[in-house]
Amino acid sequence: MEKQKNKMSVLQLTIITAINMMGSGIIMLPAKLAQVGTMSILSWLVTAVGSMALAYAFAQCGMFSRNAGGMGGYAEYSYGKAGSFMCNYTYGVSLVIANAAIAISAVGYAAVLLGITLSPLQVALCTIFTLWLATVLNFGGASITGKLGSITVWGVIAPVLVMCTAGWFWFSGKQYAGSWNPNHFSFFNGIGKSIAITLWAFLGLESASANMDSVDNPKKNVPIACLGGTIGAALIYIISTNVIAGIVPNAQLVKSDAPFGLAFASMFGPVAGKVVIGLMVMSCFGSLLGWQFTIAHVFRSSADEGYFPKIFSKVTKTGTPIVAMVIITCIQSLLALMTISPSLSKQFDTLVNLAVVTNIIPYLLSMSSLKVIQKSEGVPDSKARVTDLIALVASLYSLYALYGCGLEAMTYGGIVTFAGWTLYGFVSHRFDLKKNEV
């Protein structure tokens, strides 16, 4: 077969992988990690190792799986249509929840930018407005959404890169050390409390192998790009959040709804802080715009498979699933009202933990299916054993992250998951009945 032209280099794919993970997930991290203290750097190290294991294992799944449908296709090897359904269902639910959290991030930064204080109800109502605005703007189709997203993502990346480099000139080692464990958590409790928020920053790594058809020699270059992108994102996350912890006092950081803006104001003055906050609001909304469109297509593809109601398959002449978008945004609006909390930060925590719990379920199903995927494709045992070990590490990390999300998130996540099994019972006749009749 002739080598195709215009394919990405492994470096380009690595950069794209890192940028896809960063998005808007980082903008609230410094404030969240400040609740634990600078000992949260230990959580970063644990999450970096776990995320690299996940990224590598997903790269192997993508290379050897013959099933379409991403994680649902991977899970089908070991768990049949039931596992495929659960992957699609829980992944779809996690994206719905995660986008509500992104909208709350945008609201938090916008409130600081405008110098206003919002009540819990006002936060929820502004979040709902932001979600609907992003949905309505998506009615025009994918072209505008894609162009905006490729520009607005730099509203996050540029300030973060400045923080990673220039921020060191304002860094105080004494302040950093004094913020190590302000709440006197035990060693394992402290790490566990920040595991969920650090994993939140890496959600989306499962899409790292989606571009495997766009790079030469994918069997070699895709794992390199997945690992390289994850390592790159990890370094940027770890450096930027820890530099901020040495610039802004912990007590101020914990209370901030715009931690990067607060850090830049400390470094360069109030005007710079406002500019950075404005850039991050822009980036956050651009990310929200793209993800609202993506979620609708995730639900649409699941409906095409027969997993979700056919109403999610309806599209306009431009191929835009407007009905799916409206239904999803209605669910997100209800979610914003149901999770009203004493503070914006607390509501963000609740949504992030629930998004992480539901997202880990397809991770676990995919990791545990990798052995069957490799055997079905005749991968030599010597190579398969190494990959199986990495998948086991990824699975153990995922289970630990579930524990770190806390009982409340686990309870709600458990209810959501059991609801999924119930829903599968109502559609399983489309798959299992045919199989039994053969």
From TrEMBL:
Gene3D superfamilies: Amino acid/polyamine transporter I (1.20.1740.10). InterPro entries: AA/rel_permease1 (IPR002293), Amino_acid_antiprt (IPR004754), APC_superfamily (IPR050367), Symport/antiport_PotE (IPR027566). The chain crosses the membrane at residues 9-29, 41-59, 89-112, 118-139, 151-171, 183-203, 224-248, 275-299, 320-340, 352-373, 385-403, 409-427. Its main location: membrane. It is a multi-pass membrane protein. The keyword Membrane applies. Keywords: Amino-acid transport, Cell membrane, Membrane, Transmembrane, Transmembrane helix, Transport. It is found in: Cell membrane. Belongs to the amino acid-polyamine-organocation (APC) superfamily. Basic amino acid/polyamine antiporter (APA) (TC 2.A.3.2) family. This is Putrescine transporter. It comes from Clostridium neuense. The lineage of its organism: Bacteria, Bacillati, Bacillota, Clostridia, Eubacteriales.
